[in-house]
Design goal:
The chain is an alpha+beta fold and about 325 residues long. About 55% of the residues lie in helices and about 15% in strands. It is elongated.
Length: about 325
């Protein structure tokens, strides 16, 4: 419009064809559009930076430095986002450090009691004292197991935020490692672990170590709620372009109505194991969170009390 106005005002003595006027108007329109887009691009730059920072932090816990020297509204937005991310990361780090410190101290306290009970047992005490010392030793051993489980759960919580690329997972070595990690607990209750690996490799996003941790947690859970001298079955196979890892036991099972409740954080459906093993009420919750983070699903089923339980990990297979 401004260009046409100039033509009308200052081009009275010049003769312009209709095509020239149209081309000139089109040129000015494109020029104005380009300038407008450039200005808008500059204006939304802070929003793009803020969005990228939030995406990076949400997906991989990466804290990037945002420009915080500007005093306009956009600058204040960037400053607040940057400070919020930094403060949140510091809070998470401090919380985890405190948990690890408390876990370390609890180990020390439990270790002192366990050592004293061993000394008592070595002194060949009376049967009553021997029984009490044995109970102390068993209790402290359970405390060690609980603390170790708790530390592993905290590590799992950290791993949830890590982004993994699509990769080929070799399944046989994974289940070899799983078998070694659960062998001691299996032996304590004289439980047989039977594995049936029908697929050699799978292209999925989850990291090998994290998949091992999830499967180990599921087998630990199966051991906890299985009766001595029973059997736990683990199958890995593909169906309908999906990888399935299924852990089944013949233990205490659960009410089918609670199949979603047992995955809730600190669920009130948690209970001690068949040998009075402690339960954190958070293990299955973290397993489900980890699996779902990597585009999978974790399902639970049971036919009822004392009819066993089945937990199935399901991942879509790529290409």
């Amino acid at each position: 419009m401004i260009g046409l106005l100039f033509i009308i005002l200052f081009g009275k003595q010049a003769t312009f064809s209709s095509i020239s006027v149209a081309l000139f108007t089109l040129f000015l329109t494109l020029l104005a559009t380009g300038i407008t887009l450039y200005v808008l691009k500059k204006l939304i730059k802070p929003i793009e930076l803020a969005s990228k920072a939030l995406d990076n932090y949400r997906n991989s816990r990466t804290v990037i430095k945002l420009p915080i020297g500007y005093k306009d509204e956009a600058g204040l937005l960037l400053t607040n986002i940057h400070k919020t991310i930094v403060e949140n990361e510091k809070y998470i780090s401090d919380k985890q450090d405190l948990v690890y410190l408390l876990s370390h101290d609890l180990r020390t306290f439990a270790g002192n009691s366990q050592t004293l009970s061993q000394f008592i047992l070595e002194e060949k005490p009376s049967e009553t004292v021997k029984e009490y010392a044995s109970l102390i030793y068993q209790s402290t051993t359970q405390q060690f197991e609980f603390i170790e489980t708790f530390i592993n759960l905290i590590k799992d919580e950290e791993e949830i935020s890590k982004e993994q690329q699509l990769k080929n997972i070799q399944l046989a070595p994974i289940f070899d490692v799983v078998g070694k990690q659960v062998s001691q607990k299996l032996n304590l209750k004289n439980i047989q672990l039977k594995t049936d690996i029908q697929i050699t490799e799978a292209k999925i996003r989850i990291d090998e170590e994290l998949l091992i941790r999830v499967v180990v947690n599921l087998i630990d859970n199966a051991i906890k709620f299985s009766f001595p001298q029973s059997e736990i079955q683990v199958r890995a196979y593909s169906a309908n372009k999906k990888l399935l890892v299924v852990v089944s036991d013949a233990g205490v099972g659960f009410n089918p109505e609670y199949k979603e409740e047992i995955f809730k954080k600190f669920t009130n459906r948690s209970k001690p194991g068949t040998a009075n093993e402690p339960s954190t009420g958070i293990g299955l919750y973290l397993c489900k969170r980890i699996v779902e983070k990597y585009n999978g699903n974790l399902l639970a089923s049971s036919e009822g009390a004392n009819k066993g339980a089945t937990f199935s990990i399901v991942f879509e297979l790529a290409g």
